[in-house]
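Changelog excerpt

This revision adds worked examples to the README so contributors can see how folded entries look when concatenated. The first example is reproduced verbatim below.
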Amino acid sequence: MLRGLSTLVAAICVLPMAAVAISALTGGTETVRHLMDTVLLGYAGTTVALVVLVSLGTLMIGVGAAWLVSMTRFPGVRMLEIALVLPLAFPAYVLAYAYTFVLDHPGIVQTTLRGLTGWGPRDYWFPEVRSLGGAALMLILVLYPYVYLLSRAAFKQQSGTTFLAARALGSSPWVAFFRVSLPLARPAIAGGVLLAVMETIADFGTVAYFGVPTFATGIYTAWFSMFDRAAAAQLALCLLSFALLLAILERVQRGQAKYHDPSRRSDPMPPIALKGWRGGLAAFACGVPVLFGAVLPIVVLVWMGVGSEQNLLSPRYLGFIRNSLTLAGVAALVTVCAAISIGFYHRLRPTGLSRSATYAARLGYAVPGGVIAVGLMVPFAAFDNALDGWMRSTFDISTGLLITGSIWLLVAAYMVRFLAAALGAYEGGQAMVHANMDAASRSLGQTPFGTLRRVHLPILAPSLLTALLIVFVDVMKELPATLIMRPFNYDTLAVQAYRLASDERLDGAAVPSLVIVAMGVLPVILICRQVGRRR
């Protein structure tokens, strides 16, 4: 049973990518030829430029902040060490709504500037927030915590012996950092940057609202504006190929990056005390990302929401909240159960089949939500249409859209997208369960399922709770797959926020955005507590 369940989950994870490839290669090319002549090169260039900007931004902020809080001591370091994780609770499109409200032409900043100077609209230049640079900045502010968390863990695990040896040989702290500490942490840093890049190419809400043409917006346009599923599949295949290429390159370089400390000592590096203006500068550098990534957006969203006349207790909003909680709760349970089945089967039977299932389950993190949506909609829509045609011709009964029109296909898309996160949390906790416990349980007459229920699950309860919360919040924030696959008249908070923002009703979009952020605070607090325990 466990083998069959793991195989089924792995097959569902592979299905979207296989369906996208088949649909793209067998579909017509008229729309794609038109796109190639008009906007396809623009999609590719903008996507690459966005990836480069976000990679550089998250790298500098994440690594710099991780080094300062790990290896130095300055005023406020303990508070900032935790606060630097807070922007992870925000979807990038929520920040886009908040900063557009403040920085756009009718916003408070430019209005105040014109009031103080008496300038007209054409008398001054102001950076355009709705631009490629603005989208990159929003993504950097919410994605740098990926790099920060992994880099900080890598710096904490390093022995101080090599760093002190470099200092004894005459290197300055900065030279020792660049020549010793940074290369040792490179695999972890690369992993964090890759996560940020994957989220960047999967983002739809921010780039769509700012009018930045990327492959993610192109897929949505081909699906809903041109009504060409083959073109959407072909664009999705381009984006999927790019994502998988990045994942393969990162895995190759990580496999080649191996470091060994020949000494038996693993003394932690003594922190460097920063006093005076140096300490103030370090506190300022670490405080700026928190200010612009969490504190200021919350203030702006509350300010916007107070005068929006949006009633969270109205039946309409209660329906949005109920739909969001239902989808997120069901998807979190299904995803964690799938992670348990695959993880436990691989522990129980470490064969080629179980390893392949585990690898297939991890592919979802490299596949954008829009690609998964197209990959699931195409085959199941064909199945629904074929079944409906057969039932009509045979029994004169219309079955309609049995699968495509239900929330279960959307839940499957969420599972494929976020199974890697749940599996990572499960395997991290499973490492705490020694193999001797399994042997002792089996010797006492327990079946594999009895061992899982009586031994593993009680020990893994904290890890499983973390996995549930992570998937729950990720589903609450997810936008492209929800927009494409949601059943008719089944809107969520993310869809409502996107719809209001698309209509330029930013004050109204603030209310569902605040609810989404509030839902994201809990797992971030858990991460912060974990960070605090490891100090």
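The second example, added in the same revision:
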Amino acid sequence: MAVLESVLDRRSPSYVENRAAMLERLAELGAALDAARAGGGERYTTRHHARGKLLPRERIELLVDRDAPFLELCPVAAWGSDYAVGAAVVTGLGVIEGVECVITANDPTVRGGAVNPYTLKKTARAGEIAAANRLPMVNLVESAGADLPVQAEIFIPGGRAFRDLTRLSATRIPTIAVVFGNATAGGAYLPGMSDYTIFVRGRAKVFLGGPPLVKMATGEESDEESLGGAEMHATTSGLADYLAVDERDALRLCRATVARLNWRKLGPAPRVTEPEPPGYDADDLLGIPSADLRVPYDPREVLARVVDGGDFDEFKPAYGTALVTGWATIHGYPVGVLANARGVLFSAEAQKATQFIQLANATDTPLLFLQNTTGYMVGAEYERGGIIKHGALMINAVSNSTVPHLTLNIGASYGAGNYGMCGRAYQPRFLFAWPHARSAVMGAAQLAGVMEIISRQAAAAKGMPFDAEAAESARAMIEYQIGQESAALAMSGRLYDDGVIDPRDTRTVLGFCLSVIHSGPVAGGTGFGVFRM
């Protein structure tokens, strides 16, 4: 393999400007993460602690192995909405007794851990990750059930959570529920459909209907403990497999349960156990991406700071040069890389990508997509040259590739380029974004300009004068709206990715995700449908 050589000049004005812009975006990300960690606010977290209870991240910290990583997923879900940032639940990947697991933890300081539409999306994504990567799933439960004022938005789709949980069990992926408090109404089915259940004595309350509802429905007088307390379920109903004396004991029992799973990875091990680190400082990644997304930059500078030893065997380096393709390893795991070098994808790039994706499938090699694209090239010359069918080749290959895909938005992800570079709709195993990244049909300025052209044509067709002043005002409003909607935090708030990450953490995040992916088998596909030539 060839070792990537960096030509980065840290003293250049562009580097200094880029770094300053990235630090601003990181500060915005930090504020959003702080809001998520704050949960329901100091008043409710203080009250929760006063009851002798742990917060969700404290429970996770005690559950995972000492000094083991925990990668929080979708941490800013619901950002920009009317709901609390984080969506009243923590989800992520953690190592328990040496086993990589998906972990979810309700946050009872946010409306009692009630489920809102974003909570539903976030937990559904966690279930998808468990299924796709063959990971045991641990649910740390304390939820008041559905957020009743918005029940119309969550009741019907909410049934998916229980369907997915039982499907995990059917495919021999273990599911564990640790109940710390309320698990009422539909929430009671979560432990009811889990393989293993652990209830905290005197704390867990699991029932389909609480005392008030039972009184209304049947006239029966009851109390929470006799109706659905931990001891009742451990001694009478049989719903509880283990009865914990307190929260820490429940987490100990959960760790013991995972230790007894006899869990083994089915994917190949990394090629080396102690891979050589990159030859350049990850801190440089703050100043490499262009502050102005219209200015392309060389993704090889990124790869030199991410892949093992900076080793990168580039494929077709002189052909379709707006797309860099090649082979590398990250933390010992082989990957095929597709990275946009210039924003636009031409026919040559699309054909090159299609062949490369087929080769990766033929060798069972996971693919890493580094997105920084404005889409496929437009114009009469390119339409005549077959840009539609060539773009379709690439999208066909991405759609039918069965090796695991990882996607990272390191700039722009616009138009059909988002599809060709394995955007969310194409189900990469994981998708992350850097804080300055954007994703939309097209750039804000371009979209606003297109809308103005359409307005001019509409006025001309009606024989009416064009109001340039009103059009300029409308253009500014549209550009602002699209700019806000396409920003990284806004996209992550809608769960269109699995998180916005600090560029300096890229190698660690990708390495952990590659390890997780190899919990299941890694195999390439053989069928790609009909390629239009």
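Reviewer comment on example two: The two ends are 32 Å apart (CA to CA). The first strand starts at residue 2 and ends at 3.
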